Amino acid sequence: MNRSVYLNGEFVPEADARVSVFDRAFLMGDGVYEVTSVLDARLVDFDGHLARLQRSCEALSLVNPYDRERWLAIHREAVARNGLTDGMVYLQITRGSSGDRDFLWPDPSQCPPTVVLFTQSKPGLAESPAGRAGIKVISLDDLRWGRRDIKSVQLLYACWAKTLARQAGCADAWLVEDGLVTEGASSNTYLVKDRRIITRQLSRAILHGITRSAVLRLAREAALEVEQRGFSIAEAQAADEAFITSASMFVTPVIEIDGVHVGTGHPGPVVARLREIYIEEMRKAAI
Ligand code: PMP
Predict the structure, then answer these.
(1) One of 151, 162, 193, 284 is an active-site residue; which one?
(2) pTM tops 0.85
């Protein structure tokens, strides 16, 4: 691949996009990120992702170096330069490098952030086999830290959980804390019972999914009831349908949890409809 990658103010070939070994994201996981989907070369829910980026930065006293217009221009230029039709734009802001390893946050005026942005091409993103056929998941203990509402690049446990899921023949892991599902390793989690959608309430225990927010709004508009509370793996296994949401998976049915079929073991009508509505609406509103 020879992408044109944005690094600290300019687009460069990916092979030339180099960051210091003292960068705090490399040494400490000290950075935040966002992933915005691209459909038909346009950005899906861009403003939602930018608002969350701002919240992540503020929570960690990181300086968000650009305003909305600048971010939008960089995203659009990355899409255009790389001829991206369907896929994702990944952006990361780190606390930069003060030239040595030190636990303490440096003074931002002495240490500019590192900004990286690149594209990932996924032709036919909205027609993925997983979206049609559904995925299987395993459950695992949620061993992550206590500020999961911050979208930090510290993804060690998410990677571990995803790898364990893959080894078990599954596509995601549902993480469980105090007997209740928090979220997926890289998704928010839902069940459907009697046409009611149940998903965990927002708190520091989960990432406030941008897809989650849009899907709950669209569900209510489609006259589906939404209940925000925790649920157990057993309750999800006994549900009519289950699903996950994320920027890159949209609404994806979950057909099996820990080897137990959910409902018929095939994608059900409520989730299929929600997926359709979500993709349709997001295509229309993309910028
Ligand atoms: N939870 C976690 C832990 C995630 O990594 C993601 C995907 N980034 C989500 C939820 C879904 O968030 P979004 O819909 O904003 O992609």
Answers:
(1) 151
(2) yes
